[in-house]
Records
---
Amino acid sequence: MKKYPVTEIFGPTVQGEGEHQGKPAYFIRFGGCDYRCEWCDTPHAVLPQAVRAAERLDAFEIVERLRSLPPGPGWVVITGGNPALHELGALVNALQEHNYKVSVETQGSRWKEWLRDCDSICVSPKPPSSGMSTNKTEQSLSDFIKEAQGTNYFLKIVVFDHADYEWAKKIHKGYFFAPMYLSAGNDAGKTVGRPDRVDNRGTREVVNDLLERARWLTNRVMVDSAMMDVQVQAQYHVLMWGNEIGH
Amino acid sequence: MKKYPVTEIFGPTVQGEGEHQGKPAYFIRFGGCDYRCEWCDTPHAVLPQAVRAAERLDAFEIVERLRSLPPGPGWVVITGGNPALHELGALVNALQEHNYKVSVETQGSRWKEWLRDCDSICVSPKPPSSGMSTNKTEQSLSDFIKEAQGTNYFLKIVVFDHADYEWAKKIHKGYFFAPMYLSAGNDAGKTVGRPDRVDNRGTREVVNDLLERARWLTNRVMVDSAMMDVQVQAQYHVLMWGNEIGH
């Protein structure tokens, strides 16, 4: 059986963003990413030395690992990094055979046929503040969304600033038929897992900072006729537990 | 044209709970309620002297009032009190003719035919901590849900304590086919709009208290196999603006 670089398997916790925000879930995080976002909050699944150090597990071992966690959630979230770099069809089928529902989180840069088998796809294209090329992102998103027709997908865009907001508006206009969630940017991503950058804030401060940006975002969205069907959010897991890894 | 007791028309703001949490919306609050919940956070739409003092407006005047507010939201939330005490069919149709989508919030104690015309129904039966009879609530909810089949409805239950949690679980089991949201109880409801009870907490404290209860609720739900498809929430408008009336 094929082995994959797995950086974390954890839960029970809840889904933090998007259509299933607040639903109990386990998470499987795969190492490897085709992006290098400035504010990435999971560098331990992105940076090459971390991915090299990740455990190698096959589909059977992953399911076993999940089943050894405390019981509860019916959903499993496959995330990364970008899990769409891997061939995970056998894993998705194995999870569904064990009666889990499967969500996947990806930036929408690369399509894989196994995504069709997932119960939910969160497509999260990266805005200008990520430092990635929005031109390339828009092009690959267009290809991805064409393939995703007929699946149960939604869009989620992280918004840190004015340029991100305007870009999210452009994407919403282009894909008006897709449910759209805007998530207030979490500054913590700039330090989490980076030994060279230290975040001295306690949970309350992290929460207050996130809510401050969510207020800014909400105040804009709610008077913007172009945004009347989007849903604004703040990462629920961060509101609950701050930026602890493993939640 | 028939006139209704209207206690507030406000917005732009966002929907605070349920399936449309975080979506921009205007709110129309109707006076009058068949319940007297211990922790009601809108006594100004419930207590008889407040309802008597409420402005009387017809459907045309309500739409005019809405259109005079700053533009933005595409949704209008009809709430109360219990708006299902009134005959609001003409208003719902007028709003939809003006291209608004209409959400309604009701405890599910009384069915009205006009509810079928709404774009979304939030059914929010009241748990034991409300002080209302759960026997009566369960009976009327059963009748309500039968009528609601074929409409776009979901269940939302506020949870303050252990007894509320167990009751929510029972309701979820009985109506497993309905999307279910659990909202962490907001203590502020015990004081808002009640001159005899003063809340000296600032917004940060209100937010922290709400998040504390949301943590308790989330920690229970996420390890409870009976709750695997519910979504836990904290009122988004409270996270944004505390307990200010008019948000």
---
Amino acid sequence: MSAELQDNPMIGAEGIMTTDTHPKALSVRVGDATITWVAKGSGMIEPNMATMLGLIATDAAVGKDALRYLARLAADRSFNAITVDGDTSTNDTLLVVATGRAHNPEIVGEGTAEFGQLSEAVIEVAQLLAQAIVRDGEGATKFITITVDEGATREECLRVGKRIANSPLVKTAFFASDPNLGRILAAVGNAGVSDLDPSTIGLRIGDVTVVERGGRAGAYTEAQGQAVMKPAEISMTITLGRGVETATVWTCDFSYDYVKINADYRS
Amino acid sequence: MSAELQDNPMIGAEGIMTTDTHPKALSVRVGDATITWVAKGSGMIEPNMATMLGLIATDAAVGKDALRYLARLAADRSFNAITVDGDTSTNDTLLVVATGRAHNPEIVGEGTAEFGQLSEAVIEVAQLLAQAIVRDGEGATKFITITVDEGATREECLRVGKRIANSPLVKTAFFASDPNLGRILAAVGNAGVSDLDPSTIGLRIGDVTVVERGGRAGAYTEAQGQAVMKPAEISMTITLGRGVETATVWTCDFSYDYVKINADYRS
């Protein structure tokens, strides 16, 4: 699949009151069908459908049940896994339309190869757009990917990832490029996962292992921590050591400009 | 009861790494007994005992069970009802000591008049200190009291109050003295209270009724909203219209200085 962000002149057009600084739109070809996505958003972002604006349209022929299942799946793996400020809006909307104009044999079963191909493409596109919202998060200077691995359930992985992503202390540490790892681990412990065993927790930032089995990794140095916190794009992996489930959450840092945008927007 | 904040030279002493800008200590007389409280904290504050430093000592004679009950009750009505940034620390501590040196007849029953008198004094003192932590919250310019009334349970009232108090959008609106009431109501809806009926919600800020039965109050004007958001101390009441329970939460606003303190503290 080749997916590429495309400029869309409709978004961010003058006269529309929005704090978006970039358009978020994308088209992709899957076999003979096309999928097009349009989204907007940059603040009040921790979607929990039904509440952001995201529109998917495809000319593929897709059965109603398969389409509904796909919409939920795509939302869970993209928009419902991002947060800018933890403030869920009351009107996030994800709309999926399949016109059938591609004249493929209708995709009905969720287990079919065709559904697999379509859903992979839709999820990838949805993730790119959800990530575009985070990259354009109010005041954002960094884009952070948080993967939580080895959880007992996907839900608890998501919970841990969101807790880290929404922590003002973690977010300001990212803004400062500060390897304040205590803040990250405190957020893990504060995620409300019961019976979490600190001695099985691991933390990797970029390619640096910071925490192993609940303790500072032997080879870790503060200089390494400083180096991995510098880039504008940072990935971290938390391993819970409790199971085989995983979830990925995307977020941004918390800067002076977030305060400015939300405190000074009327002046 | 006369309770008064007293300076304590031990707190904020040079050489102790802390972002506290004021000492938090207090003594009060109850009958023949004295209660003394000492606390510290200004960031990473949404206590959920056991995790802040709060010490109560009294010379009253109190039975072990009554003292333990009182410690929990006082924590719930004070420290566990404040938040600066929603980041629960891993080492909040509340310690209660009763030496018995006042030589009163030991207070054992939770239903007695003596226990009532003592617990009222301890809760009031604990609230004053918890509020002192919020007033000294990192970057705080405003002190906000959020009362949630007419809930089905105290727990749901607390949940709604905390959600409002932790919303970065609400907190930046307070910093801006901006009557952005949509942000407050969105936080109420986002608190995870099931079956909340928007048509029974009310909101009063200061002495101005803003929302009645889910709609804008007839007499409310934006000028009134601006006026009530200006003071350094603001009280608001949300009525849920679901029951008779209540909870009060104390918080502060979210300013440039919160970002500065947590992003620039190493430089």
